[in-house]
Design goal:
Radius of gyration: 23 Å
Order of helices and strands: HEEEEEEHHEEEEH
Number of strands: 10
Oligomer: single chain
Strand content: 25-35%
Shape: elongated
Distance between the termini: 108 Å
Number of helices: 4
């Protein structure tokens, strides 16, 4: 009897540890398999480190690539993502995330003949979020995710971001500008919550708006510089034709 009483706590500890390890594996796998389907990009995550006891932890070094046709190395590099979730909700139909905090994201805004990379990613996410699950993308996500869990996020914060602007006129160089901070509250806060695709759409739409605000001035300055350069070039060519 004593052996049984000793074995039960040990078994519970083993089960808890196993669930804890599998939780981080599930998170990492979910991000790296479902994320690319939604965004149309490559996605890699170095490590998920969430405590099953406290529900707190980090996602380390999340790298989101670019859609096809864009040349820069990545769209988003997120080195520090802090998460606090309701552990009990992991086993329910709605996962409750109390807080997501992203510090100092490194973002590349690439503008070319096909538009810009951030807007393209947003369009891909919206395509999935707007579908009822009957599209090929929707079926892929359901196949990967298994049960269609819903999400609720109490507070989403993004701070101290930088945007690297890449346009053809810069000849492969980039210029950087600050990204306005973002705070969103009560995403999916209703009885049923919302889908991961809709969460991604809402967050990325806000990020896109702030990126466009931050790059407007630098892009205008680049346009003026190009205009002055062309004016000098054309003026020099005309002088060359007709003499001084």
């Amino acid at each position: 009897m004593k052996k049984i009483l000793i074995a039960i706590p040990l078994l519970l500890i083993i089960i808890i540890l196993a669930v804890g390890f599998s939780l981080n594996t599930i998170i990492k796998r979910g991000i790296e398999t479902i994320g690319p389907i939604a965004t149309g990009t490559t996605i890699s995550l170095q490590k998920a480190d969430i405590s099953l006891f406290t529900g707190k932890g980090q996602l380390k070094n999340l790298l989101i690539g670019n859609p096809e046709g864009f040349k820069t190395d990545y769209a988003f590099r997120l080195n520090e993502i802090r998460i606090a979730l309701d552990v009990k909700s992991i086993f329910s139909d709605k996962i409750i995330i109390n807080e997501i905090y992203i510090n100092a994201p490194d973002i590349t805004y690439e503008k070319g003949g096909k538009g810009d990379n951030i807007k393209t990613i947003l369009a891909n996410v919206r395509s999935l979020a707007g579908s009822s699950g009957g599209t090929s993308k929707g079926k892929q996500v359901k196949a990967e995710a298994g049960k269609d869990k819903k999400i609720q996020i109490g507070l989403f914060t993004l701070k101290n971001g930088k945007v690297n602007i890449s346009v053809a006129a810069l000849n492969g160089e980039t210029i950087s500008t600050d990204l306005p901070d973002i705070t969103l509250r009560n995403i999916g806060k209703d009885k049923d919550g919302t889908t991961m695709a809709k969460v991604m759409e809402q967050v990325l739409a806000e990020v896109n708006t702030n990126i466009l605000t931050s790059v407007a001035g630098p892009l205008k300055d680049i346009g003026k510089t190009i205009g002055r350069t062309m004016e000098k070039t054309v003026g020099g060519a005309i002088k060359g034709l007709f003499g001084k």
